[in-house]
Predict the 3D structure of the following.
Amino acid sequence: MPAALNPADLLALNDADLRSRAAALRRAHQPARTACAVVSAKAGHCSEDCSFCAQSRHHRAAVTRHALLSPAALLEKAQAAELAGARRFGLVTSGLRLSADEFAQVCVAVEMIRAATGLKVCASLGLLNEARAARLRAAGLSRYHHNLETAASFFAQVCTTHRYEQNLATVRSARAAGLETCCGGIFGLGESWAQRLELGLSLNELGIDAIPVNFLNPRPGTPLAGRSLLPPPEALRIIALMRGLNPTCELIVAGGRPQVLGARQAEVFDWGASAIMIGDYLTTPGADLSFDRRLLGLAD
């Protein structure tokens, strides 16, 4: 095990030392390579103005919009994900929160997926109180996902329609109900390295179980459409930084992986990741499935 470092000292490490430290921490705490998948259970018409998101009704992005999929349709998606090699399956809905009827349908879907598959079921349904979190847990949900998106000091540059404190409260409600928590952010929004460090430390303080690392893939029609993709070396250092700040967490490389890392995608595990998201993302295509299965050591 590498010796403990002051968190800020991680930023000063050269690439070789940072990579070595992150790899050692992964081997010690999260040695397996695993995969998760998500479904866009409800898409578009989102009331929030997150600057990176094509689903916001505040922007002019061309995106598929649909109402909440039926429990039967969600079960079908889950079964396909399991066949592809996923161990976790996330139900993701657009919007600040679900209506009572929509929430009830999601609970039914969770029960059906748990009964018919070996998947652990996750959900990302927007803001959540403890009562709803308890209902999800009773239905069989394993983990609740709700990203902080970025550091508290940068959040106002990313979203103005809800407060950072509401995100924190949602994560705490999920934990209080006994759910595991999946909470991370999206990098490449214009945040500084100090703010990346700030986010990683916030996740550590929350006691998060799994951290998704997303990279901005600029969407036409959004305020960040003109931003450039992060260079692969910078993206890999971000993965290693999150591992260094959160040694025991599951660390999932998710949105933007194919577009940002390209030919260097296979290196994510060497830089501290323990999982990847397979299949398509919410509004963009994922990597080739056969490539991901080889990356995970799965036979086709």
